[in-house]
Design brief:
By secondary structure, the protein is an all-alpha fold. It has 19 helices and no strands. 63% of the residues lie in helices and 0% in strands. About 6% of the residues have low confidence.
């Protein structure tokens, strides 16, 4: 029953209403029982960046499946269409030995995300190094012929889908790698305002103020400022920078504007902020930075973007934790909690 499956999955996946019926059917078969088992163990379903521990588990699952079936490479297992002569045999072995269950063993995430992560990890085309001039010219030519059909282009280029899409984003215009000019910054601000005005107006017309206001720093509700934005669209409007540069610049503008004039990390307030940040991080029991809800933690310091909190945590670990590069995330937090916290509390 599709409706029943959707209702059951909603407990584990909040955005399930936006998922297509065909995907719900697949998730009901591949994921629902796994999610229930994880729930019994007190483990929540996760999204976002994969941790080092999860990557190691995927590696282990893939290697064990290869050993079990006799398939001689991860590329054949995960990119079967590249090997037409072996395709039927590989599909049969995957079905017989329950490939879906085996590859997702021990990882509390939707099967599809685990599969995509495994493909990214084991695709030899992902690790081919810099693009040559000839490859860049080929990429431009193929994109002109096939549009944004990155799957088709990746086959022609022997590069991964993600790699060709990202590289084309970088080379499709005369991208500037130097310091941002005032004109570029203004174009970025205008582009962000335009897409956010369009995005938010239907939700709450009162949240967007007139662009003619003298103080345009607060032209939108603060909590909306660092939500996901359509960066490829913004990239097109800016023209001289690719999307990742636009995103990084926007984050730096936010940090600058939203913290201007605030003594958030100085004196007594600074000590309190560091103490609260260490305590909250310790309470999360996170094994990796990707498991931390940085937006939630931003309330520890003040009304600032998550990127601001992350930058402050970075400075704290670099200045306080010896040999921090050799330590895991949880070891860094334990050190800050056991060694640095008492020192800060005494100083306060």
């Amino acid at each position: 029953d599709l409706d029943a499956a959707r209702q059951e999955l909603e407990e584990f996946i909040p955005h399930v209403k936006n998922i297509s019926d065909s995907s719900i059917k697949k998730m009901a078969g591949r994921d629902l029982m796994r999610f229930k088992e994880f729930k019994k163990q007190g483990i929540a379903v996760k999204f976002g960046k994969f941790t080092q521990k999860e990557n190691q588990q995927i590696q282990k699952n893939v290697e064990e499946f290869l050993s079990l079936t006799g398939i001689d490479s991860a590329e054949k297992l995960l990119f079967t269409s590249r090997f037409p002569d072996d395709k039927d045999t590989i599909h049969r072995l995957k079905t017989e030995h329950h490939f879906c269950e085996k590859i997702s063993e021990g990882i509390p995430r939707p099967w599809r995300l685990i599969y995509y992560r495994a493909r990214k990890m084991f695709d030899p085309n992902n690790y081919k190094g810099r693009y040559t001039k000839e490859e860049k010219e080929k990429l431009k030519k193929y994109q002109a012929l096939h549009g944004n059909d990155w799957k088709k282009i990746s086959e022609l280029m022997s590069r991964s889908n993600l790699s060709v899409a990202m590289k084309f984003s970088e080379i499709k215009s005369a991208v500037n790698y130097g310091p941002w000019t005032k004109e570029e910054t203004q174009k970025l601000m205008s582009a962000v305002k335009e897409v956010m005005r369009r995005k938010l107006k239907p939700e709450n017309p009162s949240s967007v103020f007139s662009l003619d206001q003298s103080d345009t720093d607060l032209w939108i509700d603060r909590e909306k400022l660092y939500q996901p934005l359509p960066w490829t669209e913004i990239e097109t409007k800016v023209g001289s920078r690719y999307w990742r540069q636009c995103k990084q610049k926007w984050n730096s503008i936010l940090v600058s504007k939203l913290t201007r004039g605030q003594q958030l990390y100085r004196g007594t307030n600074g000590l309190k902020a560091k103490i609260n940040l260490i305590k909250r991080l310790y309470e999360t029991k996170a094994e990796d930075a990707s498991e931390v809800n940085w937006d939630e933690l931003s309330n520890v310091i003040g009304n600032v973007p998550a990127a601001y909190v992350q930058s402050k945590f970075y400075k704290l670990k670099v200045s306080s934790v010896p040999l921090w590069k050799r330590k895991t995330f949880s070891e860094i937090i334990d050190y800050l909690y056991e060694k640095k916290l008492p020192e800060l509390e005494a100083k306060l």
